[in-house]
UniProtKB/TrEMBL annotation:
Name of the protein described by the UniProt record: Chloride channel protein
Membrane topology note: Multi-pass membrane protein
Keyword Metal-binding: no
Record's subcellular location: Membrane
Residues of the signal peptide: none
GO MF, any single term: chloride channel activity
Length: 565
């Protein structure tokens, strides 16, 4: 009996050892050569599940904190409940939240700024699918506090960045190259959006259209797998229900009504631009005030919370993501004047929250503002021509999609996510007309989307395409010919140019170096390294224009191959 037990134990240990050795071999191959297609799909499934859990956890955290802080069991009716609370609680809660956010960001970030979708897009384009990890986690916590204490933003921005942090960890573990890193980023984003909004189709397309900004065939399968994983987890927790409920009758009365949706699309495009520019204007104003008064960084969110609290005393509808008010607009239960007032107040509240560096996303506010805009327009349109008009709530649905699409710069995924949020697929013509016109108008007045305009304001220009930003990803030292190398530039000529002040530093990129060729009219530019302050710059090599152009061409070729693979 003992010998038999020993033999069984030995066989078990041998089996465990073989499995462990096989796993180590597979892991070593993945880290050294990258995952195979089947392995990558498996990784996408795991990452999608993790991102889905993160999104569910973030939403549950916000709702739990809201319920505790506002004293309600039904956060879906938070606005109505908040109206019955004492005014001093509505005033103090955002101040406390703002102070907490300010201290967090001041302590753990170098610029006291919350990371969101714009940084994810930047990571996909310029950082091989990586985002900041520590600051990303702090940003998610700050956004959770903001949404729970009266901030007027949405949850999709922090959820997308939180999922991207998980993708970054995985990319680092397997030493993923740029293509694999971007695909992992897309998987995480798709799963997070799908789990958060119960929208698997839109989640996958959002990752491709907004974050990766291309529709590569090779990326679709793993992103779809991750999106489905996130959706399944979300439905297990929240149920298979749509976010909004629409009236039973919600269809076009006749095709002659379509021109009204053309006008609605134009109006929604202008409203979207007003929302985006209000945020940027408020941010510039807050920067100027902070600099003028020499205010500490942690005080800015706190002061913002005070302003939001004063608004919430009279308009509790600005609190949080605003789904109760959005649902009321889609149900047609708001009067024209209230819809217009709520649009103005919500735009102001969102601009104040974001300018105050409190964190959160822009998607949910744009849904609310769009639904209110559509309802107000529909009230007028159906009153002018009732014999040719369908339900006024259809305008709210189309307006919701149109403003959100224009803000995100994502007409395809936004149209689909609105359909999935509402479960209404019968109104496609009206929604598509409004979305296309709103997107066309807004893209002419901003740099294609809110996120790309955010990046452009920081000097990161991605809207013009890879030919504009790829130069900034190629470092001079990777392209230059070192001193003493074959076909190196003559040292005497290089030193003469350095004496004239014509050179480029070794840490520079081609974006900084290429304009010099137009200025000096030489085939090369010296590359130098700086030592201590009292030492002259050290000649390290030379950048030849032909080498730089070849490097750019190779980068463009790789980018095109990735996008069309």
């Amino acid at each position: 009996m003992t010998d038999s037990s020993n033999r069984s134990e030995g066989r078990l240990r041998a089996s465990v050892g073989r499995v462990s050795a096989s796993w180590r071999e597979v892991w070593s191959l993945i880290r050294s050569h990258g995952p195979s297609q089947v392995q990558f799909w498996f990784i996408a499934l795991i990452l999608g599940s993790a991102a889905g859990i993160a999104a569910i956890g973030f939403r549950a955290g916000v709702e739990t904190l809201q319920a505790a802080l506002y004293g309600t069991d039904d956060v879906a009716m938070l606005h109505s409940f908040a109206a019955s609370l004492p005014w001093y609680w509505l005033l103090c809660l955002p101040v406390i939240g703002g102070l907490t956010v300010g201290l967090l960001l001041d302590r753990f970030t170098e610029d006291a700024r919350v990371r969101s979708v714009a940084e994810v897009i930047e990571g996909a384009a310029l950082r091989e699918g990586r985002v900041e990890r520590k600051r990303g986690l702090i940003s998610a916590l700050a956004s959770m506090i903001t949404l729970s204490t009266g901030g007027s933003t949405g949850r999709e921005g922090p959820v997308v960045h939180l999922a991207s942090v998980l993708a970054t960890y995985v990319s680092s573990w397997i030493r993923a190259d740029g293509i694999t890193g971007r695909d992992l980023l897309g998987c995480a984003v798709a799963a997070a959006v799908s789990a958060s909004f119960n929208a698997p189709i839109a989640g996958a397309l959002f990752a491709l259209e907004v974050v990766l900004r291309h529709f590569a065939v090779h990326a679709f399968a793993p992103i779809a797998i991750a999106s489905v994983a996130g959706t399944v987890l979300g439905r297990l927790v929240w149920g298979d229900v749509t976010e909004f409920t629409l009236p039973d009758k919600n269809a076009l009365a006749f095709y002659v009504e379509l021109p009204a949706f053309v006008l609605l699309g134009l109006l929604c495009g202008l409203v979207a631009v007003a929302l985006m520019r209000s945020i940027f204007w408020a941010d510039d104003l807050a920067n100027a005030v902070q600099a003028r008064l020499s205010l500490p960084r942690w005080l800015r969110p706190m002061a913002t919370g005070l302003i939001l609290g004063m608004i919430a005393i009279f308009f509790p509808h600005i609190i949080g993501v605003g789904y109760e008010t959005t649902s009321a607009a889609l149900q047609g239960s708001l009067a024209f004047d209230l819809a217009v007032i709520f649009v103005v107040i919500k735009v102001a509240a969102v601009a104040i929250t974001m300018a105050g560096r409190m964190g959160g996303g822009i998607f949910s506010p744009s849904l609310m503002i769009g639904a209110l805009t559509g309802l107000a327009f529909g009230t007028v349109a159906t009153a002018i021509a009732p014999e040719f008009s369908g339900e006024g709530t259809l305008y709210a649905l189309a307006g919701m999609a149109a403003v959100a699409a224009a803000v995100l710069g994502a007409p395809i995924s936004t149209t689909l996510i609105v359909f999935e949020l509402t479960g209404d697929w019968q109104t496609g013509l009206a929604v598509m007309v409004a979305v296309s016109l709103a997107s066309a108008v807004a893209s002419r007045l901003v740099q294609r989307s809110f996120f790309l305009t955010q990046l452009a304001r920081r000097g990161v220009h991605l809207a013009a395409g890879p030919q504009a930003w790829l130069l900034g990803t190629i470092r001079v030292e990777t392209v230059m010919r070192a001193t003493g190398a074959p076909r190196a530039a003559p040292e005497d000529a290089c030193r003469e140019m350095i004496a004239e002040g014509v050179f480029v530093q070794s840490g520079a990129t081609l974006e900084q170096a290429m304009p010099l060729f137009e200025t000096v009219q030489r085939p090369f530019v010296p590359v130098v390294r700086f030592g201590p302050e009292d030492e002259a710059p050290e000649l390290w090599g030379a950048l030849f224009q032909v080498d730089a152009l070849r490097a750019v061409n190779r980068a463009l070729t790789r980018m095109a191959a990735e996008e069309h693979s």
